[in-house]
Amino acid sequence: MNKQILRIAGVSFKRWLYSSKTLFGLLLIVVFSYVTYSPLNDVVQFFGVKASPWVFSFFLSFDKMLVVFAGILMVLYSDAFLVDAYSHSMIIRCGRRAFITGQILAVILSGLFVTTLAFACSFVIVLPSITWDKDWGTIFYTMSEHLGEIRQKAGISTTLIMEPIYLRTVSPITSTLMALLLMWLSSVFDGCLIGCLRVLTGKAYGTVVIGVLAFVSMFSRELGQLVFGSSLRFFSPILWSNPLYLNWYGTEYEPTPAYAVCALAGCILVFCMLSSICFRHGDIYDQETGG
């Protein structure tokens, strides 16, 4: 790979990482991770039995958290593929193709960083309450079957939603790996979508589109389920951020894990191709000044 592309990717990633929006977005991930995972410490203390370390799969199990996470990604990637004065100097030195390719690589790398941070939080926050277990463990099975009783008797409120059929069907390692992959792909999807529409229109219309997709995802979970059945879920990429909302059982007309991965990867590829082609052959404007 061209060294100029790697250099641009590195510079773009560092600029993204140290921007105020990114720091705020990453802080939100840490805060919401604490809000989500900390009740597990109370559950463990109540039962006196440590939990297994596979809690990351349930980070976005509460459907409202999917909207929150989509909002955080909008903050993190609101400046994706932004062309400012510094970007103009890089384009002059390295060329349009190298610049846009480096921008795409930076988004892919930033998605990996976001996923790694969220995954690390799932260990750090509950570290005193976990022990190694290759299975889901007693605590997770108990929470999946008696969450209402735990809330009533222990007074513990949690957004960690666990379904018994999911725990019986999907192994912890498979679930965790799929959760990592889906979060990474969802992050890159949002970043490339915002960036692609910025290249095409010069505006951050991608944030509006993500807002619409978040609405569709929630609609498909509630009223849309009654009106359209499960069909809308095939067009709700926000839902695919968590493996619990996918069809692992082969019994329902819903997106499968393979469908979600292929659809997200396919959309990312299309966004990247459109961005590359349009950026190389279109006009470039300074999107900070409008000139």
Protein traits:
single chain, 11 helices
Q: What does it look like?
A:
- Mean pLDDT is 89; it is low at 285-291.
- The chain has one domain.
- Helices cover 68% and strands 0% of the residues.
- It has eleven helices and no strands.
- The longest helix has 30 residues, at 172-201.
- With 291 residues, it is an all-alpha fold.
Total beta strands = 0
What order do the SSEs take from the amino end to the carboxyl end, as H and E?
A: HHHHHHHHHHH
CA(first)-CA(last) distance: 32 Å
The largest pleated sheet is described as: none
Number of helical regions = 11
What is the gyration radius calculated from CA atoms? Answer: 21 Å
Low-confidence stretches: 285-291
Q: What is the strand and helix layout of this fold?
A:
Blueprint: H1 3-17, H2 20-47, H3 63-76, H4 85-94, H5 96-124, H6 138-154, H7 164-169, H8 172-201, H9 205-221, H10 223-228, H11 257-281
Helix pairs in contact: 1-5, 2-3, 2-5, 3-8, 3-9, 4-5, 5-8, 5-11, 8-9, 8-11
Concise structural overview:
68% of the residues lie in helices and 0% in strands.
